[in-house]
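Q: Structure tokens for this one, please.
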Amino acid sequence: MSRSFTREDTRRLASILAEAAQAEVMPRFRNLPEGAVRDKTSPRDLVTDADEAAERLIATRLSKLHPGAVLIGEEASTRNPALLNMLVDADLAFLIDPIDGTRNYVAGLPLFGMMIAACHRGDVIAGVIYDPVSRDSALAVRGEGAWMEYENGKQATLAVAAPAPPEDMDGLISTGALPEPLRTTVNSNLSRLGSTASLRCAAHEYRMLAAGHSHIALYNQLTAWDHAAGWLLHREAGGYAARFDGSPYKPTHRSGGLLYAPDAGSWHAARKALLGDAVPDAEG
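A: Here is the predicted structure, written as tokens:
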């Protein structure tokens, strides 16, 4: 991997998210007028005026900071799915999730985040997950670790939880997008874990994982902007992740599921506990 991305480069991404949060996201929070919320693919897949305005501002700032970079935003990709095909060959591409947890945002629940991942030829090289409410950032640079930066200037290194047997694991489990019969299998096995929850916000789930506040997470819908930054954050915090068949994750993957754990041993234990002997197809 030839292209590098520094910690200072990554902090600039966090600053862009903070600017978009202050200008477009927080002024509309609990203040969305009629018509400002729309369905995309279903009533559970929402977009708001805030999502679209924040993505435009983020894309504008990124294009000035990194001229020529490929910009792949969630909302732009909804309009033009072919944008994702540019990820493989781009020397520098940015995956943008202007508001992750839009359903929480619309409900007035202060549990949503903003994410950017920087990629080089399909590999994630840096990522930021910003919390517009607490105004702090979780950052990661490939090969250089993961850390928190708070509004008061304090920093803290991120590290995943210690390995644990399944019965002592806290899991962040999303099963809604799992195909049958796998969905029924996983749901019937949730009691094998110590506890399970879903925050309806991958941004905050990834922050919890990387900070050691949960052991595992399971996802099936692999939209790149939802997972690229969080995958790197978890990896650089010392964690282990793979698709359900054990193959490595790349942001170019669109299927095959994702399972996260503190290390390879606990990954295999969690996979056995939740999926049993099922090995879903991980093509794509």
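A few notes: The first strand starts at residue 37 and ends at 42. The chain has a mean pLDDT of 94.
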